[in-house]
């Protein structure tokens, strides 16, 4: 660090700047952080922060009074932010060092932002009748300049330029004039108001707003703020009146030297390694919080062009849209004929088909219609077979008969097959007559072609929920006894297409549904092929995730991603295609949507072209991505880009678990050697820790042995207990679901409290202010398991892991609180209420209420998913989320006892 | 008789737990039997069933190249009723084997060899678990339970090793050699434990009888006993299967030459899949040499604690043997609670345990992605087996460090608790 003697010493000394920044007091840091955070927030375009928080005279009403406080934090762009931060930091730092953190908070959050704002509003609106919005921290900078100027005026009344003597209190006014001349878009009036309030502050007229010192001392002592908050400037520590101005007029005093900010020297230099309190207690919270924030921001960045990619066909054999589709003309007559025949047999129930549940719906497929389908297929020259199935779930029986027919490939050896599915009832429960008819017409049409190298299976199922599941299970001989085996089979399935056309008018666009059971997705190539054939060859637009008017903006992209994530996270079957996914058969559903000029022939040609593409495949679809998030029909993010966000959220639990583990083992032991250098306020803390450590065995090397039996049993036991609600909710009859949920909510309130009481009762009685070791260990183990499960889950079902991770995020920060009894009770009760709002059954009820569906129907669907589709979202909820939640609640609840 | 009652309670609970799992989840054993983490070609129950089927029909069980286990298992299992139709007798049999193994562990723990032997005496003798706790650790370890439910024949090797060590620790050197011979007969690698087991026997002999016999003569005598027991078992095997050479090449040849590269939790399969055939013999030699070379080094360095050498070697086998499964890891984990006094000296337990837990969960997940979902590939699973091995190695290195540190503290009592730097 020695500069050569020949050179002049650097005016800018980096190490000094660094130490200056490290010594910034707490409130200054928070303000800078808030300003920075708002600047970051402005980067997104969905929600205009400036419009939300600026001080706009016309917008000020009773409901928008918050603007009086928010406007100093918000800026226009980077340079505005930077300049204001540079101007504000030294002034604010000095103010805080002089007056203490609490006073600064009280003043700056209160009168020092509202007073200038009020003054400005008064002048701007009432006198000038204008409406210029203002924002920015420059108001504080000028305010503080004003108060400093008054102070300087008291010691040095004038500067003299030549023979002129200029009073020093005018300097902020001059600065104000210069700023408005030199920098465009600055509000002269706003700055002037700030300077005026600053003068008032400097002259001591605002003393009334400063809270009495006694109260400040009481708050500080009660909350032990000095020990808890880093960089906190205490009421006692403040260099109150050293500069001799505020708020008591004390004119004698030395002139402030601008470079040595003495006020901050009493903050101890914090060497991380010598500060186990910070390293083991504060830092993990910070890191965990950072992980969560970065994880969420990461997800929000994904829709940007920089992080997503355009889709492309990876498998060259597919050649989408390279063949002419001949399905047209006379086939339409056949279509109409088939439709007429089918409609004749269906009359009666076709009118109202709102019924959701499989059998009870009005459009029961009559045996005659099914016979008709079979006879049409047989007449077209296909081998036809049927399969009966029956499932019972939550006390409801779902039964039906699948009809399917196989075209044997003229150019193949029956080792591979494509499946074309049409269900009598679509995923939304509508009657799919056109879809069925189209499938029959295509069967007749395909049969006459000689170019198929793969078998084509036409599958007509009664509904979209259970029919395909029964068929695909039986195809792979994995069916339960209530499902008949298949009499007729073909080769390995290469892909499946589901056709839905549930109305009679022409359609506008194709809605492609691709989500599978348990969040499995089909190969992206299949989706891309469908999009490129529909859009490129046929001129039909393709939409996804029910985003009917997708304008390719950031918001629309994000919404598409989020909708996809929600479907993936719940893991239920979104259509007849979903059941194929667990067997590694890539499948999509094509749904017709909107009112347009595309007819059934266009849909038929699309399907034909898709089948031709699949027919080209040389091996199973494997080239492209299996893990992706689609944000537009031609844009996606791949797993490498999005996975870190869920991993970060899962990682936050692991970080906390490691920190707690280290805290139980090393912290107590290592503190005696370091306490000499630790500041006084931390000695108290370490002393408590040592007392806490005494029941456990302390080794000579300063390492404490951990008592693992109770925490291990507790955590493992609760995870096993999760099997109980899992079993109950999957085996109850559907009419009891609602009451079961409310019982569960009640049990969730009581169970943690009971556990907490038991834990407190059986714990060795130590000083009330310390957290006994086993609480920390329980939390550590529970969070470790949670992190483990969630990171494993992220590789299987990213969305579910992300959602559960977010819902569990508060669990990192809950703990047995260790303050005085009144505060402890208040805090833990509030915490318990918040946690109970985030409990699994309450979240379920809340979600149902928000989505406007009944709890019973959701749970019936979930039980159906468990019994029929093999959905394991429930396992994650009851055996991962719920135990972690109960433990978090019990730890928080233990502070009540 | 408080301890005995505790022991009985633990053993009873373990037995009940196993049988309950068997009865409540009838599909669980078959699921576990099919998992590559549990069943390897040399210990799979399915393959044993195949061999049994051929054996009971008077066909050589080694025809067809499916069965690679020792022939003496066949007459034992043919006494049990068919496991498919009557699963309970097999379940009880395996559970009882587990209990017997735990009993051997109790004997080892009660002998106190982990804390003090002829040449060393721990500074932290008061920090220990009693035999019942050690047995509980073994019996309620999920890996042990999974091994038991999967009916892996590795449990017999485990019994051989455990009884060899427990007999050695309580001074029955001849029984120890016989048990070690049984383990070596089932799967070759336990023979590598001969030197530390003999040292343990020798130390016990000297400590008890107070007469120092010549160590070399003692070792040669016992090597003779070991050879004799293996030869005897091989002789009986000849009676069971006719073709001696077919049996030897199908069992020992299979274990030595590693022709079946089905994925498992070890490090060999991926390496040998990727390798050009011309290098195969060379690397087989290198891998086996690598596995064997630890015996000499550890035995010499930790001569004062032969039981710890055995523990460390079992850990090394769990990582580096050709067809490892989680049952090998569970055997290693069973020995760790004997060294509770070293726990406070270990530095990376949490990290190692976390790595193992992560691998335990991610392994099946990635295997699912690779084999069933088709959206992953072999590298997913291989990466996780690397993590698993890494976790085990960290744990192993950490225990060895702790043992060395404790020896060092015994030698330098004035430096206890001071920071040291390993150079």
TrEMBL record, chain A:
Residues 680-694 have a biased composition (Basic and acidic residues). The chain crosses the membrane at residues 20-41, 73-92, 104-123, 135-154, 166-183, 189-210, 279-301, 642-662, 708-730, 736-759, 796-814, 826-852, 872-893. This is Rhomboid protein 2. The keyword Membrane applies. Coiled coil: none annotated. Signal peptide: none annotated. GO terms for molecular function: serine-type endopeptidase activity. It comes from Aspergillus ruber (strain CBS 135680). SUPFAM superfamilies: Rhomboid-like. Residues 63-206 form the Peptidase S54 rhomboid domain. Keywords: Membrane, Transmembrane, Transmembrane helix.
UniProtKB/TrEMBL annotation, chain B:
Keywords: Endoplasmic reticulum, GPI-anchor biosynthesis, Membrane, Transmembrane, Transmembrane helix. GO terms for cellular component: GPI-anchor transamidase complex. Pathway: Glycolipid biosynthesis; glycosylphosphatidylinositol-anchor biosynthesis. It is found in: Endoplasmic reticulum membrane. The chain crosses the membrane at residues 176-202, 223-247, 267-295, 307-325, 345-367, 379-404. InterPro entries: PIG-U (IPR009600). It is a multi-pass membrane protein. GO terms for biological process: attachment of GPI anchor to protein; GPI anchor biosynthetic process. Its main location: endoplasmic reticulum. Belongs to the PIGU family. This is PIG-U-domain-containing protein. The lineage of its organism: Eukaryota, Fungi, Dikarya, Ascomycota, Pezizomycotina.
